[in-house]
Structure of Signal recognition particle receptor FtsY:
Amino acid sequence: MNELPWIEIISAVVVLAGGGGLAGVLVARRRRRTEDQGDASSTAGTTTAPSATAERETAEPATAEPDTAGPATAEPAATAAPVLERPAPTAGRLVRLRDRLARSGSPLGARLLSVLSRDSLTEDDWDEIEEELLLADVGAGPTTELLDALRTRVRVLGVREPAAVRDLLRAELVALLQPELDRTLHTDPRTAEDGTHLPAVTLVVGVNGTGKTTTVGKLARVLVADGRSVVLGAADTFRAAAADQLTTWGNRVGVPTVRSDREGADPASVAFEAVARGRDEKTDVVLVDTAGRLQNKAGLMDELGKIVRVASKVAAPSEVLLVLDATTGQNGLSQARVFAEVAGVTGIVLTKLDGTAKGGIVVQVQRELGVPVKLIGLGEGPDDLAPFDVEEFVDGILG
Ligand SMILES: Nc1nc2c(ncn2[C@@H]2O[C@H](COP(=O)(O)OP(=O)(O)OP(=O)(O)O)[C@@H](O)[C@H]2O)c(=O)[nH]1
């Protein structure tokens, strides 16, 4: 499978900006999908909306079978906004990332630096550093490692100059964040053996309120800026407003949204519809938003497994992005473990990093699961999503 390095996104945006391409273009077409679903739909039966709703309220185990997902209820987006927005260039986002992190009250890096720069470091100073790291959710193991490395290097090198201390801390923090991990997003469509176009499918999962819908909307903008065709799938059928929210995101950049006309409809059905539409219309990427679910509710996690299986009848997801709220810290780790097991998470999106010093969870999630943080959310604005770049991130928290 091909990869989409962020540099390509940046280049494409520069090209688009240079050509003055997208602004003012009218959306003339919103196709209502009426054609038969072919092979895949033959496996589908009726939708299972009532059980999905009951499940969420009572957290009972799911009873629906994978083959009961009916695709019939999904519909394209409502009327599009007439004027398309042009998403902000990705390049500018990295700069903003650093600003936001540096402005987030008292960044971890700045606090560490202030302790490390003291004339002679006492045991109390080292305890303070340890406490800062633990408070930032870096985790016990990585904290001990970092402390040991810092102690050794400070002692051996006798570093005291602020600039040298900064360099030393920077190098240790970068190493902790595993810069060697592959953070590219897999968003290239492929062709099946029989010649069928298969869109790249990205499934976005996570617990309630972490920023899934917002992330799907922001990611659509990034892809559009790169000149990609996108279809959104509103598989959060539990919260009606989520589908409206997603449709609005899509309309702003001329991307159609496949959604159900019934609240509580089977989310697997909607996911199937969206991927099938991407296949039929030869779309590059299908982004599927899912409802928030708690990782300890077996029924909801079963439902997620079903979404993956049913969507895979058309095209298996090439990315399953787990959205974690940075402000919830440690809890993100147990979420990540269960989601990784059920849905095969390929990347983490860490949201709400603006204004929190708890980003240390990045370290633990990557270490324990071997899953890289690929994107970070830095605010509620439409272009406040940036690729996670280890060095930029560390420079941001060092202020
Ligand atoms: N400050 C900040 N807020 C964010 C960020 N990402 C998302 N949010 C906000 O978080 C709130 C929840 O976002 P949603 O996208 O609706 O969350 P969700 O995960 O789809 O929610 P459910 O569907 O209820 O599970 C919204 O108010 C977003 O604007 C971020 O990076 N920074």
